[in-house]
Write a structure and sequence with these properties.
By secondary structure, the protein is an alpha+beta fold. It has a single domain (3-119, 149-179), classed as Histidine kinase-like ATPase, C-terminal domain (Heat Shock Protein 90, 2-Layer Sandwich), CATH 3.30.565. It has five helices and six strands, in the order E-E-H-H-E-E-H-H-H-E-E. Strands 1-5-6-4-3-2 form a six-stranded antiparallel sheet, covered by helices on one side. Strand 5 and strand 6 (169-179) form a beta hairpin.
Length: 181
């Protein structure tokens, strides 16, 4: 059964500018460098497509940061297989959906983190987590990147976890949206 958290629906219409990329797991081992390079490319591409009046520098930075955070999580926690990236821009509304496969234990821990993150004010929780991480240098998995997106970028985020009974893994789709003024 699929479990959903946050804003996990895409709303851009068929006339939106779209781009789909697959980061293939083989023969190239996926790494952090692929996240930055891919995010920068997509930020550049979609910033140039923004509606008139949208600050392209701000759009490029915001899209790049958003995608880099989500891609780093996809690479860091993926169990196996490719990472699929779909992005669209409809006027001043950018959306992305990043799909990857994770193991059930990772899915369970991530769902617990999402339950906590989505139940609180992201700005307050962000400050608490920054303070906690400053005192515990071994801290990880605190959700700082997601909280920063929600608090500082007003990103709308959502996740769909779909178990795959054929291989015991979980398909994860992360949806992220930004609206530029």
């Amino acid at each position: 059964m699929t479990v959903t958290f946050g804003h996990a629906e895409l709303t851009n219409g068929p006339s939106a500018t779209t781009l789909h990329i697959t980061l293939a797991a083989e023969p190239l081992e996926l790494s952090w460098q692929h996240c930055g390079t891919t995010s920068d490319f997509l930020g550049d591409y979609f910033a140039k497509c923004c509606a008139k009046g949208v600050d392209q520098v701000d759009a490029r930075h915001s899209i790049g940061y958003l995608l880099n955070e989500i891609l780093e999580n996809a690479v860091k926690f993926r169990h196996d297989g490719n990472i699929e990236i779909s992005c669209s821009l409809d006027g001043n509304h950018f959306e992305s959906e990043i799909s990857n496969v994770i193991d059930p234990a990772t899915a369970e821990k991530f769902q617990e983190l999402l339950t906590e993150i989505l139940a609180r004010d992201p700005g307050e929780l962000l400050l608490e987590r920054i303070e906690a991480n400053a005192t515990d240098l071994d801290s990880s998995g605190s959700g700082l990147g997601l909280l920063t997106l929600m608090s500082d970028y007003d990103a709308k985020l959502g996740w769909r976890f779909t178990p795959d009974a054929s291989n015991g893994s979980v398909n994860l789709k992360t949806v992220a949206a930004l609206t530029f003024s």
